[in-house]
Write a structure and sequence with these properties.
heterodimer, A: mainly alpha, Helix Hairpins, 3 helices, B: mainly alpha
Chain lengths: 103, 165
Amino acid sequence: MNSLTGYLLLSALLFSIGLAGALTRRNAILVLIGIELMLNAANLNFIAFWRYGPNPSALTGIMFAIFSISVAAAEAAVGLGIILAVYRHAKTTDLDQMNSMKG
Amino acid sequence: MTASFLILAALTIAGTAAAMSLRNLIHCVLALTLGFLGLAMLYLQLGAQFVGFTQILVYIGAVAILAVFAIMMTQSAGPHAQPALSSFWITGCLVAGTVFVVLAWAICSGSASAPTPPQPGVSVNQIGDALMHQFALPLEIMGLLLTAALIGAVILAMPEKKGEQ
């Protein structure tokens, strides 16, 4: 078991934890955080493949990770804005009670 | 597979698992910052210093603080009578476990034993140079996306007008 396998296994575990959180939690903010965790697992894969790949001087993995972090930040801002807007209508962030799309 | 990797991996997994399983939402976000910090340390260990410090600045400094503000503004930080997990949590855990087993099987069966290359030395200078020349167009598009997301988030969170009367 070499180092790359360890990083990939850690990333898979991180992805599964994020997926489990996004699927099972009732609070909408924690679901969003679970999605962020899945994005982080992908970032770890980018960096690990860049480090142990055949051509680390090309910087492609680092660039992918930087752009991915930027997109994740934009996604978090918009997602939390949507959650606040939904909370103003429904007065709850409980996903089990948000079962209607009509405000 | 060094000791530092194992310690950082344990820190990351413990932080994220606590973030996804604790009941108090503020505690969840605090545990999440621990997980993000472990991930940033892993990036540093892999030789990607810029990405590691970006991770600390963006995730711990911005995303976690934003989540704390959202939790306080939606008043969901207090004690709850309802359970923290949704009604179909067993199915969700089963799906996540299946995904992990499939991913781990694919990783373990497909990994070739390539020799570890030497640690690449990447300076911020090189990254800035690449961003200004090779990746100039993606950088511009990213600036546009961030501006649009900023304006969109402000418009979404603004209080609505009273409607037509």
